[in-house]
Amino acid sequence: MLFAVLVRKAYRVNLQYRSSHLIHNLASSLFGFMYIFIWMGIGRTHELEGYGVQGMTAYVGFTQAALWVTTFATLGLGIPERVRTGQIALDLMRPVSLFYQTAVREWGQVGYQFLYKTLPIYLIYFFVFSLPLPTRFWTYPEVLAALAMGAFLSICVQYLIGVVSLWTTESLWFHWLNYAFSMLLSGFFVPVEWLPSWLRTASLHSFYPYLQYHPVKIFLQQESAAVLLPGLLWCGSLAAVCGAATVLARRKVEVQGG
Fold first, then answer.
1. Is the pTM of this model over 0.85?
2. What's the structural domain count of the chain?
């Protein structure tokens, strides 16, 4: 019941701004257009092995749209702001885990962004570039499962970034460090298999490919859902770390100005 209430409230808060968000989608899609045109130019002289121009167009279209679900989670899940206002003290007093509270609210945000950002942005690319859709029915639930996994991993990471603000005022740099790694190692800029061998190894031994690379490969029907199984270990591990961080947060809280 609490899960449904928090998700619904977070979703409804965003509905107030859906008109401005839809306009913002046009600006966001322009970045995808730039990436696509760059790959089109490169494709004139290079084979773009494994993808081709049309494949890279579909790749970029999907990853650009998926960012809003798997990468653009709320900074620190809103915890840094609640620390500054002192609201975090009340959050920790509630008989519900801080991780549960903040993660569930973020799921409402994820649902909203999927409907009002991810889908509209992808539809723009779909109609402009005549992108192909998966031919197998089961690919669609597999893609949704992959996106949900990516969203959960992103939520866990942002929670840990947010929890850091309980002890220090300098937590923002963790967010930008994670953002840089996610852009590089998730397969957003280039497919993971095109990275230098040492960087490709680092990527495949991290959770970042589950944010972009594996979802888009499943969507393009180049991988099966079986590739997500190791991701479950990452989900369990990060959830456990978040739980441990919550316990530490209850023992020592520094409220700045609260």
1. yes
2. 1
